[in-house]
Amino acid sequence: MKKLTVGVWLLAQAMLMSCSQLSTDNAATSATSEAGAAAQGLGLKLELADNRYQDKAQSRAILTITNNGQEELPAKGWKLYFNGGALRSADSTVAIIQHFNGDLHYLAPGPDFEEIEPGESATVEVLGRAVGNVSNFPVGFYIVYDEEPGKGIPVSLEVEPGKHFDEATQQFAAKFYEANAMIQDLPATSLPKVFPTPVSYQEKGKPFMLDAKVTVVADADFRREAEQLAEALATATGQKPAIQDKATGKAIFLRKKPGMGAEGYTLSVNPERIEITASSAAGAFYGVQSLKTLLPATAFSGKAATVEVAGVEVKDAPRFGYRGFMMDMARNFQPKAEVLKVLDVMALYKMNKLHFHFSEDEGWRLEIRPLPELTAVGGTRAHTTDGSSIVPSYGSGPDASNKAGTGFYSREDFIEILKYARDRHIEVIPEIESPGHARAAIKAMDARYTKLMDEGKKEEAERYLLRDLNDKSEYRSVQGWDDNIMDVSLPSTYTFLETVVDEIRSMYKEADAPLNTIHFGGDEVPGGVWEKSPAAQKVISQNPEVKNTDDLWYYYFGKVNQMLQERGLYLSGWEEIGLRKEVKNGKVNWVPNQQFADENFHVNVWKNSPGSGAEDLAYRMANAGYKVILTGVTHFYLDLAYNPTYGEPGLNWGGYVDIDKPFYFIPYDYLRNLKEDDRGNPLDRSIIKSKEALTEKGKTNIVGIEAPLWSETNRTTEDFEYKLLPKLLGVAERAWAKDPDWAKEKDAAKSEKLYSQAWSEFINVVGKRELPRLDYYAGGYGYRIPTAGAKVVDGKVEANVQFPGFTIRYTTDGTEPTQSSSAYTGPIAATGPVKLRVFNAEGRGGHTITIQSQSSM
């Protein structure tokens, strides 16, 4: 084996693989297509040799390149591309690492690189920042030969993390154990049977027996809700109940009654009848959802002809009118069927806003008929040299056939999604990312320009251009792009946006779906943008209110706001659309922009990380007059890893989010319950002592809560559902339910006691009722099964689980625990490693964790 000692910095920020079933044991992990490896004959292995190199937060790893093919890998004439991190070469001449664009990089042989013969291997030493979890490694490797620059060939990667995480695994397992020990295992019969928590709930009287003879009686305005209820009951009893105008026996009634509010309802169950009353179809719908959660989880398995429905009296209405989830299908695509499943689970838990994030740097996913290039080019990721696609990102690889990188929703698809959402009282809010995060659109319009210029149609070619062709500005976005910002000084940019907006409006009209707002992004535009754009300088020279490129920001959103108002819509965006840059004492500060404070801007405020200076930004913007949707990264970013263990997939730049984070969020006083920094350590409370509190006026501007699920590390539906659930249940509870007693209690000790009681009840409801329901509901969801908590006590391994009702199984012979392995019933005496794994009632297991018993340590 050749040793090509190459000092390179590997800032590995990309994802590795689908990790939903990855063990926290440090087994070697395959990242890409074995079929691709066989086709090429090359294989890569990355071994983590040191995760604290030179006693700093950096790693040293060995990259082994093995030639399994029939021909030598030449000493020059190729590039090995991959996604993840910003790479820079060091002192060696053996290999060169270059950043291409975005998260795409390549390794190319240097002048001293030697060819690798068939059957031989060579190693390259790489340095980088310390690895936190599996998602910190590069991914999506493929090789391109200079003689065929438009052809990329996938290359497999195997990762060997070594034993660098063993000690931390033991520590985290003990931390999980201590947290789980605070949870009381409550009898299932004592748990509330409606979720999220209603305003008023009482169990009384005998149950209603649901069988195939029961009918549904509905007022005319609730006919659609009655039909949906009948479909759900058909799953439970095996027969769809008839929908009638009046009862002929035992029945479920949907009655209209004035004065109950926009989304309020009552639900009454006794042995003779079930009655839902509401003033609106939305209220009736939420009453139906509560009735569905009253049913035992197994009712949705289709195995019981008769179902017992507990006798209850419920009076309910939501706390917030905006209960949102943001689905990112742009960075990595999710099929239409998955969008419909998301709408199903949102509806069940009474969430009513789907933020549809269909455009990004890495993908444009919605068909716009006048501009077919948006999906033909912007919806395709592949290694090409002719501008027919955008570059591979997030491990999508060189081929356009990759389902995560390539895909879009046709007009017909989107209209179907809109109708499906409409029928479930969910408003779909489309997002046109602008002016940043727009590379897919920019490159698509570049392709259109090139095509029409070749046809001699200069005026038409320039009609939708999104960049000044003479712009020499230099910038780099947070995600590594140097060409992803629309030029807001170009008239063609607004022509483009108007065309897209009007086409979207036509789809909503055809679907008969509500459209009140369009989200225009507005986040993460880097410095340096537009500074050398002749078009921008022209706008500055002709508009006295635009004094510099910073003012182009307000110029842009003023024009977009006007465009939407002319169409009867209001503007939504990330917090930056309502901020203004101020420079004081040489320091840049972002403050609420009074220019737009009374324009009904709805802002998703995500910046609240402790130490960022923006901990109170949501409150400052609400106090200033903006309509604020609480979207804080610390509690609601579902793409963040559940915890800091190595085997837990997901990003960690904003901390860690498990189901407890949204659950213990206090909307009107979240500064009180910022408990951790972005590393998961206890927060220094002095950081937030001087922050701005929410005023009474500001409270009226908090319109709701939203949880985004960004898709950088989601290349399959399994990846997506793993991060979505069960976290979404915590979001649904906090968006719907009123402030719990512990959130209102001022005495810290009393508040903590009340919280502990509420947390135990919530986690029991999730573990014993809602997750078992989601095994079947809408075809079943691949929610995350928690990792066991464990610690060594008096030489024996003790274990527990986050969700009562789940089962821990273990082995002591080194094999992976399966459904047939021994169930944990008490402390385990062992002389070697103990492997523990949690299983749900259906026999699906989570991550395995290995604990070294004291005698084996």
TrEMBL record:
A GO CC annotation given for this chain: membrane
Region annotation (Disordered) ranges: 379-398
Pfam families (alphabetical): CHB_HEX, CHB_HEX_C, Glyco_hydro_20, Glyco_hydro_20b
GO BP: carbohydrate metabolic process; glycosaminoglycan metabolic process
Domain of life according to the entry: Bacteria
PROSITE patterns the record matches: PROKAR_LIPOPROTEIN
Active-site positions on this chain: E524 (proton donor)
SMART domains recorded: CHB_HEX
Residues making up the signal peptide according to the UniProt record: 1-23
Domain Chitobiase/beta-hexosaminidases N-terminal stretches: 40-189
Parts of the chain that traverse the membrane: none
Keywords: Glycosidase, Hydrolase, Signal
GO molecular function: beta-N-acetylhexosaminidase activity; polysaccharide binding
Enzyme Commission number(s) of this protein: 3.2.1.52
Database matches in InterPro entries: Beta_hexosaminidase_sua/sub, CBM2/CBM3_carb-bd_dom_sf, CBM2_carb-bd_dom_sf, CHB/HEX_N_dom, CHB_C_dom, GH, Glyco_hydro_20_cat, Hex-like_dom2
Catalytic activity entry: Hydrolysis of terminal non-reducing N-acetyl-D-hexosamine residues in N-acetyl-beta-D-hexosaminides
UniProt entry tagged with the keyword Hydrolase: yes
Gene3D superfamilies for the chain: 2.60.40.290, Chitobiase/beta-hexosaminidase domain 2-like (3.30.379.10), Glycosidases (3.20.20.80), Immunoglobulins (2.60.40.10)
Family affiliation: Belongs to the glycosyl hydrolase 20 family.
UniProt cross-references to PANTHER family, sorted A to Z: BETA-HEXOSAMINIDASE, BETA-N-ACETYLHEXOSAMINIDASE
Protein's name according to its UniProt entry: beta-N-acetylhexosaminidase
Species of the source: Pontibacter mangrovi
Taxonomic lineage from the root: Bacteria, Pseudomonadati, Bacteroidota, Cytophagia, Cytophagales
